Amino acid sequence: MLAIVKSTALFGLTGQVVQVEVDVSNGLPSFDLVGLPDMACRESRDRVRAAMKNSGFEFPARRITVNLAPADLRKEGPLYDLPIAVGILVATGQLEQSAVDRYVFLGELSLNGQVRGVAGVLPNVLAAREQDLRAVVVPRDNAAEAALAREVEVYPVESLGQLTRFLRGEEQISPYEVDPLLLLNRGGNGADMADVRGQAAVRRALEVAAAGGHNLLMIGPPGSGKTMLARRLPGILPDLTFEEALEITKIYSLAGLLKPGEPLVTQRPFRSPHHSASAVGLIGGGRHPRPGEISLAHHGVLFLDELPEFHRDVLEALRQPLEDGVVTISRVSGAVTYPASLMLVAAANPCPCGFLGDPARECTCTPYQVQRYLGRISGPLLDRIDIHLEVPRVDYEDLAGREPGEPSSEIKKRVERARNIQRQRFGPGGTSCNARMTPAQVRRFCSLSREARSLLASVFRRLNLSARSHDRMLKVARTIADLEGSEVIEAAHLAEAVQYRSLEARYWPG
Ligand SMILES: Nc1ncnc2c1ncn2[C@@H]1O[C@H](COP(=O)(O)OP(=O)(O)OP(=O)(O)O)[C@@H](O)[C@H]1O
Ligand SMILES: [Mg+2]
Ligand SMILES: [Zn+2]
Predict the structure, then answer these.
(1) Boundaries of CATH 3.30.230.10 in the chain?
(2) What tens digit of pLDDT does each residue of 27-41 get?
(3) In angstroms, how far is CA 322 from the centroid of its own chain?
(4) Domain AAA+ ATPase spans what residues (predicted)?
């Protein structure tokens, strides 16, 4: 007899419904699984057989064929254990077909019949909802994330036995419910700008970067606080909206990185991959494509500490996603796209030993070593970083002083005000912040005062700027004016923006 059970499959972050067709017929005992299953999926056969036997069900000594349709879509991971087991129970008359029709099933089985959590439940449940399937059976461990999909009944199960009793009407399971908005309103993450002593100019630059969504490069000697500052950037960015939090959560669900007890990612991500990271780790992809660090930093901060130490091909691969806010990964079965709209914060020492230009310690590097070191950061990448910043070592007086810095919550208020101006400027959809303005928008929205115009003309000639640098400078000036609530960009705004590009002439001459 033929049984049909519903499940879902993902392609990138989007998905579609999968029909699990199970046929049990007379013949030599066998168990075939077809329909483009990957390795983890093929191993379902062994898990399902053991789980059914150990849960006290009859496992048919007949010919079993399981087809995952449509057959042209790759089925990944162990999440089809549950629908396959249910299909066999229906095909052998241990469950009624009509009892399973309305549900979508997702879950891995352990050999003793327990239902194990799997990665990617939230995007799978959203895919089901898109097809108007509004009842899903998921592992208990994934119930909270599944329930983030609104208007879907989520039935958490612990074991195949419990599920079967539920489907036979012998046991009640009440749908799992969460109030996602309640989850969203949770406090900060601890690392506060109040901990940073002194460093007024650096704090200011961080605020400007946050206000306009500008990428940032910090150059400074060891111990000057670059890492400390970068970690505090997410805390001065605007609070996440629910939609943003859900987008991030989908990515973390897919990567299997949701923490137990925290179904919704409510803080802006901060990712700091090591400089030995591979292109796949950073960008995403691989044989079983996973989102990379740049997607895990979506709506948050990607911190690349010791930027010159990263592999060249990795840095080059960053360029396109930085520009587009999404990353496309090509695969045999077609390209998948993951979101990657992030703020890049990069840090570097001024030279291999770290002390170039330090008033207190002497640099031991040769000019050739210095040039080679920073030269590893290519011009095109440098061009995508709006703000270049020197981070001097903090003054002893500042560090020893008792005076705490301004807290993140206060800075965030100014950032949010500037972001509101930008939201109104660009309207709903499309451009989200000044850093992402198109060249046409730069021309339209960056009107300069007369004084600012003549300053720009002289700077442009003196610094020998590329057209791209010119636009970057205007975008930063736009943000500085927004922080002040000024419609027109004044000379003072532009002068500050010019400063944020002045390291180029010093460290990357020619
Ligand atoms: N402005 C500051 N206020 C308070 N503490 C500071 C400040 N700057 C640095 N520190 C202290 O110095 C420590 C080292 O800073 P951090 O690790 O951020 O430096 P870094 O610039 O990243 O150094 P490296 O180049 O070695 O990575 C911090 O953990 C912090 O305790
Ligand atoms: Mg550091
Ligand atoms: Zn040096």
Answers:
(1) 2-178
(2) 999 999 999 888 887
(3) 13
(4) 212-395
> Among candidates 347, 350, 351, 325, which has minimal Cα distance to 338?
325
Class of the CATH-defined domain 2-178: alpha beta
DSSP string over 327-385? EEE--TT--EEEE---EEEEEE-SSSSS-TT-SSS-----HHHHHHHHHTS-HHHHHT-
Cis peptide before 359 (omega within 30 of 0): no
Distance set, CA 221 to CA 225, 271, 306, 349, 506 (Å)? 9, 22, 11, 5, 16
pLDDT of res. 189: 63
Looking at domain 193-429, its CATH architecture is: 3-Layer(aba) Sandwich (3.40)
Q: Which atom of ligand 1 is nearest to the CA of 218?
A: 21
Kindly indicate whether the domain formed by 437-510 is annotated with CATH number 3.10.560.10.
no
For residue 217, the CA-to-ligand 3 centroid distance in Å is 19
Give nearest CA residue, ligand 1 atom 24: 222
Report yes or no: 325 and 436 within 8 Å, Cβ to Cβ. yes
The CATH 1.10.8.60 portion of the chain extends over 437-510
Q: Which residues line ligand 1 (CB under 6 A)?
A: 196-199, 220, 222-228, 349, 394, 399
Please give the pLDDT value at position 358: 81
Which SS3 state, helix, strand or coil, does residue 246 take? helix
Q: List CB contacts of 120: < 8 A, sequence separation 6 or more.
A: 10, 77, 79, 253, 254, 256
CA of 224 from ligand 1 middle (Å) equals: 5
Buried b (16+ CB within 10 A) or exposed e, 192-224: bbeebbbbeebbebbbbbbbbbbbbbbbbbeeb
**DSSP secondary structure, 264-325, as one string:** S--S--EE---TT--HHHHHEETTTTEE-HHHHTTTSEEEETTGGGS-HHHHHHHHHHHHHS
Rg over CA atoms, the chain: 28
For helices 450-463 and 491-499, the axis angle rounded to 10 degrees is 20
- The sign of the torsion formed by the CA atoms of 439, 443, 446, 452 equals positive
The atom of ligand 1 lying closest to the CA of 393 is: 8
74 pLDDT band (50/70/90 cuts)?
Answer: confident
Residues forming CATH 3.40.50.300 domain(s) in the chain: 193-429
The answer on pLDDT for 427 being more than 80 is: yes
What pLDDT does 497 receive? 96
Structure tokens given for 341:
């709209």
Q: What is the SS3 assignment for 452? A: helix
